[in-house]
């Protein structure tokens, strides 16, 4: 295994060396790929039995792939999941169990998040810029759409074909930047947060625990879980948080907020945009 291949994911390592492996190790590699998603449920001897090879052959495969032993393989696969790569996990719950897990996560978030402070910042800012990339963009867009019904001067970025440099250029100290950055963030997220902080504006960072370095730089960090027991991340807690924030902003802005929502609804009616 070359140094370049050692830094790759396990499935990529197998693909790179599969044809060069001895026949028994190829069988072991195929079994390993088949059981990557539930690897934590097996011991090395059980995996070797499933592949129809000896435990020694399975151990040689691990070394061929650049791992010291089976424990290191399992740690590698767990790290992929923590980084956001979709993988089924041990003991995947029923739909009812999943719903219970989601409800508990939302409850914990709403109990611990600094919601009153975030509401005050979003309600009183001169201007609010909400930014998110990839899977974070729908959450950012939802926040923008809710706030835009309550107050003016709420923008979203980056839109298709848009960069955010020109948006940040107009940001001032009495503005708020909301940076939504859940895991598997693009590399530009870090530099964006740094530039937003440098602008002097208040910066709210909404991120999962893997975004700790960005959360620490925020004026107000909002840590929100996305990893559950299922293969893909869930944004139920994040969307619930957006709804709670928007409701709080509406209450805080009082008559001005209600007048804004009425004006938006009237415009919908005149334009025939909403059924």
Structure description:
It is a single chain. This protein is 56% helix and 9% strand. Strand 4 (202-207), helix 12 and strand 5 (220-223) form a beta-alpha-beta unit. It folds into two domains: 3-82, Orthogonal Bundle (Arc Repressor Mutant, subunit A); 95-271, Glucose-6-phosphate isomerase like protein, domain 1 (Rossmann fold). It is built from 13 helices and five strands. The chain has a five-stranded parallel sheet with strand order 2-1-3-4-5, sandwiched between helices. Helix 7 packs across helix 13 (236-271) and helix 8 packs parallel to helix 13.
Element layout with pairings:
Elements: H1 3-6, H2 10-17, H3 23-34, H4 44-51, H5 55-64, H6 70-82, H7 95-112, H8 115-124, E1 128-132, H9 137-148, E2 154-157, H10 165-169, E3 176-180, H11 188-198, E4 202-207, H12 212-217, E5 220-223, H13 236-271
Parallel strand pairs: 1-2, 1-3, 3-4, 4-5
Helix pairs in contact: 3-4, 3-5, 4-5, 7-13, 8-13, 9-13
């Amino acid at each position: 295994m070359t140094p370049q291949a050692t830094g790759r994911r396990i499935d990529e390592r197998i693909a790179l060396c599969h044809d060069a492996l001895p026949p028994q190790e190829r069988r072991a590699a195929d079994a390993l790929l088949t059981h990557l998603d539930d690897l934590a449920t097996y011991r090395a001897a059980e995996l070797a039995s499933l592949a129809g090879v000896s435990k020694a052959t399975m151990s040689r495969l691990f070394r061929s792939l650049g791992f010291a032993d089976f424990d290191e393989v399992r740690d590698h696969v767990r790290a992929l999941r923590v980084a956001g790569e979709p993988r089924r996990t041990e003991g995947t719950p029923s739909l009812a169990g999943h719903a219970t897990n989601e409800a508990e996560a939302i409850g914990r978030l709403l109990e611990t998040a600094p919601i009153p402070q975030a509401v005050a910042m979003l309600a009183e800012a001169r201007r609010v810029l909400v930014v998110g990339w990839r899977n974070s963009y729908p959450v950012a867009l939802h926040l923008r759409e809710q706030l835009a019904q309550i107050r003016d001067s709420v923008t979203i970025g980056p839109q298709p074909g848009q960069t955010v440099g020109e948006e940040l250029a107009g940001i001032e100290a009495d503005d708020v930047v909301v940076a939504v950055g859940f895991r598997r963030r693009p590399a530009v997220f870090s530099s964006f947060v740094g530039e937003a902080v440098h602008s002097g504006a208040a910066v709210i960072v909404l991120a999962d625990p893997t975004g700790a370095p960005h959360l620490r730089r925020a004026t107000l960090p909002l840590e929100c879980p996305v990893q559950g027991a299922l293969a893909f991340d869930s944004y139920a807690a994040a969307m619930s948080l957006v709804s709670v924030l928007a409701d709080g902003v509406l209450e805080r802005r009082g008559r001005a907020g209600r007048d804004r929502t009425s004006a938006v609804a009237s415009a919908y009616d005149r334009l025939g945009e909403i059924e």
